[in-house]
Amino acid sequence: MTLDEALAQCPVIAILRGVRPDEVLDHAQILFDAGLRAIEVPLNSPEPLVSIGMLAKAFGETCVCGAGTVLTPAEVKSVADVGGKLIVSPNTDEKVIYETLRLGLWSAPGVGTATEAFTAVHAGAKHLKLFPAASYGPNHIKQLKAVLPAHVMVLAVGGVGPADMETWWQSGARGFGLGSEIYKVGQSLEETREKAAKVVKVISLLTH
Predict the structure, then answer these.
(1) pLDDT at 129 over 90
(2) Which residue out of 40, 75, 99, 181 is catalytically annotated?
């Protein structure tokens, strides 16, 4: 499954920041059952590569799993080595993007300005993560989309949740990265199920 295919089914990347290997599969299964098809485990989580490897093995080609907060080419390689397919960063680093694409993984670098966005696009990225989205606001995406190539997808990440996803969507965002709106450290499986259902309900209204 490509990242485009995953986001076509549900345009949300679930960010499981702080998740532990002994609980990651249970939460991921709930997200998958709700309809989400993209999951990232930030590298500042406990034993992130263990969790990513478990996700890759469990979900194979049915869900795009990988890492967030990826800052160096070496980290990209370590994610690839355990089977991760998705590389998400808070910043734009051409070397990270090049390594991601060289290894056949999906790149979603963080951008803020038009300069960063075009730097990422010229490096080969097709999915840009506006981060932190709440600091820029929906109109920022609208203005960026006016000048970016049509094939580039902009995802709103950081301070975005179900309550304001419609506004972002209308402004041109075609995907979201959700952290605490999907998962917080220590939350129960039932809480994950409730949050996922809420997100998917909003997404279904936006995409149908």
Answers:
(1) yes
(2) 40
* Correct CATH for 3-207 of 1.10.150.130, 3.20.20.70, 1.10.600.10, 3.20.20.150: 3.20.20.70
Q: How far is CA 49 from CA 161, 183, 198, in A?
A: 27, 18, 29
Instruction: Please state the rounded mean pLDDT for residues 157-164.
Output: 96
What are the domain boundaries of the chain?
Answer: 3-207
How far is Cα 9 from Cα 113, in angstroms, rounded to an integer?
28
Cβ–Cβ under 8 Å, residues 92 and 67: no
Question: Exactly one of 75, 85, 99, 129 is catalytic; which is it?
Answer: 129
Give the tens place of pLDDT for each residue, 137-149. 999 999 999 999 9
Confirm whether 40 is a catalytic residue: yes
| One-letter amino acid of 189 | L
The yes-or-no answer on residue 5 being catalytic is: no
Residue 189 has what pLDDT? 98
